[in-house]
Write a structure and sequence with these properties.
alpha+beta, Jelly Rolls
Length: about 210
């Protein structure tokens, strides 16, 4: 019998209901009074300042909720359960008509997004196949072509509910299309393992 092996897949972890409704409400209340900075590429996208969770009570609680899932996700990335630290965290407030340009996260290994409000179906987080690599330079995209994990160029996260979390490798490009619904609030973060060891050559990281 023929077998298909999914060579070198990129993991994305979806963790529903990580935050309690009470914590989601507390986060939304805190964000309402937080300092907001306008995004450089969209006048309808705002952020709080990037903060170390150790110095922010709300972000500390969110990072603690993510911690066990980061250990599990790190097992997929590196094949071993490592100690992880959320090094920075910030809030995204996407108003109607706004969008988030295609981007990736530097200086980290795993990134995550907590969803605090519902998202319009048209403004779900979308991940894009990494540019470059060793792929064919030809495409076959037609209305009748079946899109799957081996030929699709984009993955759109299914509808996320308030309290849900997604984790992904920091290098993975992603975007949020134009928001056609109500204000969309998320909290994003970057994380690093305490160290990586390659046959005795150990690199240590600290926030």
């Amino acid at each position: 019998m023929d077998q298909i092996e999914p060579l070198f897949p990129i993991p994305l972890m979806r963790c529903p209901g990580i935050l309690s409704p009470a914590l989601v409400d507390a986060a939304l209340d805190a964000i309402g009074t937080a300092r907001i900075e306008k995004n450089l590429r969209s006048d309808q996208l705002f952020h709080t300042q990037v903060a170390d969770p150790r110095g922010d009570e709300l972000f500390r609680r969110l990072s603690e909720a993510a911690a066990p899932k980061l250990v599990d996700f790190g097992m997929l990335l590196f094949g071993e359960k490592l100690e992880w630290t959320v090094k920075e965290m910030w809030t995204n407030v996407l108003e109607p008509g706004g969008s988030q340009a295609l981007h990736s996260h530097a200086n980290s290994f795993a990134s995550g997004v907590f969803y605090l409000t519902p998202s319009h179906p048209g403004s779900r987080t979308a991940f894009v196949r990494p540019p470059g690599g060793f792929e064919f330079n030809f495409r076959h995209h037609t209305r009748s072509a079946a899109m799957g994990p081996f030929n699709a160029g984009k993955y759109v996260v299914p509808v996320a509910e308030p309290g849900d979390l997604i984790l992904f490798p920091s290098y993975l490009y992603h975007e949020v299309p134009k928001n056609e619904g109500d204000v969309r609030v998320t909290v994003a973060f970057n994380a690093i393992p305490d160290s990586l060891d390659c046959w005795g050559y150990r690199i240590k990281f600290s926030p």
